[in-house]
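Reviewers of the previous submission asked for a worked example of the structure-prediction workflow described in the proposal, so we include one complete record here. The input consisted solely of the amino acid sequence. No template or homolog information was supplied to the procedure at any stage.
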Amino acid sequence: MKVPVYRLKLVKDRLLELSEKVLSQPYAAARFVERWISTCDREHLVSVFLDAECRIIGAQIIAVGSLGGVHTTGREVFKAAILANAHGLVLGHNHPNGSLEPSKEDIRMTRRLSFLGKLLGIRLHDHVVVSRSGFRSMREMGLVPSATGNGESEAA
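From that input alone, the workflow returned the following structure tokens.
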């Protein structure tokens, strides 16, 4: 019997312009997500990868949904973040209908992904909802669970 041996590789797809490299300003990642996907006609879920000093080191479109929603799994959210050696991430998705209010499913997904991130040692810093009218931080709304301790996973 022959067993396949795999090699994983993170491939750079393209470059997106970023005006701020450090997330010292609370809205830098949100602005980046807003410029990237706010005008899309279907919901897009994206991830912005951060290093240990909260500098943006990469980004990925995780999933493209329909006009009314986008679905994913924790596996899809964290796969590229692990390959990119991300220390943390900011999730973002757009609402083509213009609403900035997170849905109940958005909130459930955010809590689940925050928990999974803690297990993996990759902190979920925020989840932003964007539309043509701006953006809204789920962390500022109290909907992103706080990281414990210094941000490291308890299992690490």
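The radius of gyration is 16 Å. We consider this example representative of the routine output the project will generate in years two and three.
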